[in-house]
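Format notes (please read before filing issues)

Several people have asked whether sequences and structure tokens are stored in separate files. They are not. Every record keeps both together, in the order shown below: the sequence lines, then the token lines. Line labels are part of the format and must not be stripped during preprocessing.
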Amino acid sequence: MSGKRLQVGIIGAGRIGKVHASTVAFSLPQAKIVAITDLNQDAAAELAERCDIPSVAPSAEALLADPKVEAVLICSSTDTHARLIGEAARAGKHIFCEKPIAHDLANIDTALQAVAKSGVKLQIGFNRRFDANFARVRKAVATGEVGTPRLLHIVSRDPFPPPIAFVKKSGGMFLDMTIHDFDMARFLLGEEVEEIFVAGGVMVDPGVGAEGDLDTAVIVLRFRSGAIGTIDNCRQAAYGYDQRVEILGSLGKIATENLFPNEATVSTGTEIRRDLPLNFFMDRYRESFAAEMRAFVEAVIQNHPVPVSGEDARAPVVMGLAARKSFDECRPVRLGEIADGPTKH
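Then the structure lines:
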């Protein structure tokens, strides 16, 4: 590695690529972006100019062949993630990749095998782990502050449904939206889920149902310890982005509420009200995106384990596949039914 400043390449100049590029360029002096690429070369060039990136590579392959690039941020579409992880690993580049690695376990396993063989670091972009509120909930469980967990409840509702064009390629709600909540469930309780049961339907957009997907669901999780979790998902909440967590333990509970653009409350003779919560993930999780990128850069520079591993990427996909099977078959599904469960490697 060249000195103490990590030389980074970015694959993907879309929405999340812009977020990570801005973080590295303007808030992370331990790293420098030396190249970027995107299928849309104009988008890559525009982001390169905005973030003072010296090189726009003609392709991902060209970027990975650049000897100046020590680590790569994979921010391209999901269907490219597994292939690019394998190529980056074989090129000897450390890897940060957005979730999920793939929608199927075979491609995930192939990518993880390439990483293991190469010895490079791989961190997956489950940014919610780095949110200060959720980290505090995890601390309360890990230190025993609330005792033995009994119940976990995660509320995750979007302000509006995605376009049908997105639904067609997303892998379904469980592998696109709920996958974050599956990761949070494992992270917050610090243990694996054994069984999943789903009740769900199409209550927001009939077009989602026409594509064979759901937009509303309640997922019940049974953890190895016997603790029970529920995930409450909906693709639309009229009041905005709803992100809450509660854990009930033997000694008490800990809960987080939504974040708001301000803390002001208006009280009149007819009502007490406040402004709506932050409207979507780009605002709600802005700091967590920056924190996860700092963690990745530090892990590479200091040569310590990444905080979100490839195994952490595989487990929520197993959970998502189990959730879909549960919905389709109207029964609880044990994760061991889904290709050896969440801890194959």
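For reference, the curators noted about this record: The longest strand covers residues 149-157. Residues 310-329 form the longest helix (20 residues).
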